[in-house]
Specification:
Length: 164
């Protein structure tokens, strides 16, 4: 099981931590003040460690393959203070989870057939975009405009080769 902070580190109102892997729902559920038995809905729960309440969080459970990466997934929306985030990260590590490598969720989504390679690359471009032009270009790629163009071109090439 892996986890990653989906929001930048720093003081903020909210931090988003994404968790993925087989059994992640059960591990997180066992740490809540009240279990969650539904997918795709947002719930307010206290996340607890052995020392006590880590934070009052909003959580969403996703059942694979109907998640971003195609695996079971949990998103935790906590307060964004550094102490809160460090506490949750440390707790997830105590549960036997490891911090994801940069881009690992997108890599898993690609490996599970949720996105193609062009879309995976364009998600990275979107995350790293700094200008309006870069953002627009990356959004077009993420939305599949380039894939459609290349698929059409491929079909035309195959048709032309069949005539030859």
């Amino acid at each position: 099981m892996i986890f990653a902070l989906a929001t930048p580190v720093g003081k903020s109102a909210i931090a988003v931590i994404r968790v993925a892997g087989e059994g992640c729902h059960k591990k997180i559920n066992s740490s809540l003040d009240k279990p969650i038995n539904a997918f795709g809905q947002i719930f307010l729960r206290d996340l607890r460690s052995q020392e006590g309440v880590l934070d009052s969080c909003m959580l969403v459970f996703y059942k694979g393959p109907k998640s971003y990466c195609g695996e079971d997934m949990v998103e935790i929306f906590s307060h964004g203070g550094l102490g809160v985030v460090k506490g949750i990260v440390g707790f997830l590590e105590q549960l036997g989870m490891r911090e994801a490598e940069p881009g690992e969720f997108t890599k898993i989504a690609f490996q599970n057939g949720k996105i193609n390679l062009l879309k995976a690359e364009s998600i990275g471009d979107l995350i790293h975009s700094e200008t309006e032009l870069q953002r627009k270009q990356a959004v077009n790629l993420v939305n599949g405009h380039a894939s459609k163009y290349y698929d059409d071109l491929r079909s035309k090439l195959i048709k032309s080769l069949s005539f030859i």
